[in-house]
Design a protein that fits this description.
Blueprint: H1 2-42, H2 50-77, H3 92-118, H4 126-148, H5 157-196, H6 218-251, H7 273-296, H8 301-335, H9 346-375, H10 386-409, H11 417-421, E1 425-427, E2 433-435, H12 439-444, H13 446-451, H14 472-526, H15 531-534, H16 537-542, H17 544-575
Antiparallel strand pairs: 1-2
Helix pairs in contact: 1-2, 1-5, 2-4, 2-5, 3-4, 3-6, 4-6, 5-6, 7-8, 7-14, 8-10, 8-14, 9-10, 9-17, 10-17, 14-17
Organism: Trogon melanurus
Transmembrane segments: 26-47, 53-72, 93-117, 129-146, 158-176, 229-250, 271-295, 311-333, 354-374, 386-405, 510-528, 540-561
Main location: membrane
């Protein structure tokens, strides 16, 4: 009977699992086809032009637009239905972040439209249609994520799986296209800088995709062409954030969740002044370093070497501070006896996997730099600073990943720790001190409820008052002893509460400091300050083309790691 009763539920899971497998395979093939097309355009394959790539991306975006409109329309007609929500997915701060990146992406699209208008004589129509389609796609997608990122879809599950996974890989392809376009621009600048550093033995061939015609208005063309590349980092972050939110939505399709009260964790500036001050100092100094670096690098050999030395020294100092802060936070966690939340949570699982997975990008670059320093025959002075910098990058990510992952898995407090763990001291008859088993047992008063009495803790505060027949001296003595013991208990509670509060304050300041530090370390590579390009030593050891391929593959993951870490640390700060 048990087997027969259980068979329908087991059999019912097969269609869902098959739909998940089929939709994931569809998305992977969609992505691989677009990736191959992107690669063919990048290497100037015969018969493949940029218009072919853009036409493919436009088609994918139009299909996603149709699916989102269908989903929104169906949601409006079923607005009265009560739907399950994943309270951990689509946090408000994450929606605000993606909205900010989307606004800047719309500015990027307007620049592309202006660029197309100025070069319309020699550009394909696809280059004009793409930014318009992308702008509409961006607006509707942000609205969709704001309204439905928390949805747990329980109807039309097979169709919705294909629609959501199509959206995931469409955003990944748009992210790949943005990364490639921005990397080709950075590579051209890097090749020009290598000449000033004295690496004349490296063949310099610029990979230029500039239009083969004159611009109608030279000033506007210069503004559009230069401004586009400064906005690409925000476009790249927008698409990767959108793909992660959509992936969580895809994993939640058909999921059954336990209905329980979710405690809101608003962000508060109170108590994190120290961490914010030190973090803002790091952020301000980093922006100054990046500005000086971009001005000095490529000016002359001496200026370029000074710029690299300045960058390495600043980064070493910041990374050392981050390592120290992370170690202090982990030591505080070791001193606490707190359980971890191991419940099923797709959003939290994805956060942990992305932290470790994207950290591998910078680890690859760091190990490449370490190996180049060891194997190189000649070592310019500035290259030696690269050794401690690369080692600290590896160590800092180890420590930070451990801190973030443990933080997001720790159970959120529902009451003060001192109330939960405090052993309340009471006085029984005969002035004998005894420790009650726990706060919960006293508060619930199980034994007292069974006999119809209240626990003595709530009977006027002392047990001595029960003995009304006793002598006055005995009563006063018992009262005095009870008073002194309860005073000791209150002192213990006070010191315990202060200890817990101090730990929480330290952890919040550390999370705030690391949050701003990760934003600071996101800025240099996102805006062209990349010593992995400009150092020159790695190109000599590994060869120019192999090292550039490694950097172009690893750098996007390294950049995303910093932004994702900042987002995770913001959540940690709210939760602590």
């Amino acid at each position: 009977m048990e087997k027969g009763a259980g068979s329908p539920s087991v059999g019912g899971s097969y269609p869902q699992k098959n739909a998940e497998i089929l939709s994931s395979q569809y998305g992977i093939n969609l992505f691989l086809a677009g990736l191959l097309l992107t690669f063919a355009w990048a290497v100037h394959a015969v018969g493949i032009s940029k218009s072919h790539l853009l036409s493919y991306l436009i088609t994918l975006m139009l299909i996603q637009l149709l699916w989102m409109l269908w989903y929104l329309g169906r949601s409006c007609t079923q607005r009265r239905l009560i739907r399950d929500k994943d309270t951990h997915a689509g946090a408000r701060w994450l929606k605000c972040g993606i909205t900010l990146f989307a606004v800047i992406t719309l500015i990027l699209d307007s620049f592309k439209i202006g660029y197309y208008v100025d070069f319309s004589n020699c550009l394909s129509p696809a280059e004009g249609i793409f930014p318009v389609t992308h702008a509409v796609h961006t607006i509707l997608q942000v609205y969709f994520l704001w309204c439905h990122a928390k949805d747990i879809i329980q109807s039309f599950k097979t169709l919705e799986r294909f629609g959501v996974i199509h959206s995931v890989f469409t955003n990944l392809l748009l992210w790949t296209n943005g990364v490639l376009t921005e990397s080709k621009h950075q590579l051209n600048e890097h090749k020009e800088r290598l000449i000033t550093l004295g690496f004349g033995n490296i063949t310099i061939v610029l990979d230029d995709h500039a239009p083969q015609c004159n611009c109608t208005t030279t000033t506007l063309c210069s503004i559009f062409s230069q401004g586009i590349y400064y906005l690409y980092p925000f476009n790249i972050e927008y698409h990767i954030l959108a793909s992660t939110m959509l992936y969580v939505l895809w994993k939640n399709i058909g999921r059954k969740v336990e209905h329980h009260q979710q405690h809101k964790t608003p962000f508060k500036f109170r108590g994190i002044t120290v961490g914010m001050i030190f973090g803002l100092i790091v952020l301000t100094s980093t922006i100054a370093i990046v500005v000086v670096y971009l001005i000095q690098i490529g000016g002359s050999k001496i200026k370029s070497e000074l710029a690299l030395t300045m960058f390495y020294l600043h980064a070493i100092f910041v990374l050392a501070l981050m390592c120290t802060a992370g170690i202090v936070a982990l030591l505080i966690y070791r001193l606490e006896d707190r359980s971890l939340d191991n419940s099923k949570n797709p959003a939290r699982k994805l956060d942990a996997e992305l932290l470790v997975g994207t950290a591998a990008g910078s680890w690859l670059l760091s190990w490449g730099s370490i190996l180049a320093i060891i194997c190189a025959r000649a070592h310019p002075k500035y290259t030696w600073y690269n050794l401690p910098y690369s080692i600290l990058v590896i160590i800092e990510k180890y420590i930070q990943n451990l801190f973030i992952i443990e933080s997001i898995h720790r159970e959120q407090e529902k009451a003060n720790d001192d109330i939960k763990t405090l052993r309340i001291v009471t006085v029984s008859r005969g002035s004998t001190l005894s420790l009650t088993p726990s706060y919960k047992e006293i508060y619930n008063g199980r034994a007292a409820r069974d006999s119809g009495e209240l626990p003595c803790l709530f009977k006027g505060g002392i047990c001595g008052r029960e003995n009304d027949d006793g002598g006055g001296g005995a009563k006063e003595e018992t009262s005095h002893e009870n008073s002194s013991v309860m005073h000791s208990a209150s002192d213990f509670s006070f010191y315990s509460s202060n200890s817990v509060t101090n730990k929480r304050r330290i952890l919040k300041n550390i999370a705030a400091f690391l949050f701003l530090c990760n934003l600071s370390l996101w800025i240099p590579p996102a805006f062209g300050c990349r010593p992995e390009y400009d150092n020159g030593l790695e190109e000599i050891v590994f060869g120019f083309e192999p090292w550039i391929i490694v950097v172009n593959l690893a750098m996007p993951f390294s950049i995303f790691y910093r932004m994702h870490s900042a987002a995770s640390l913001f959540e940690v700060n709210c939760k602590t």
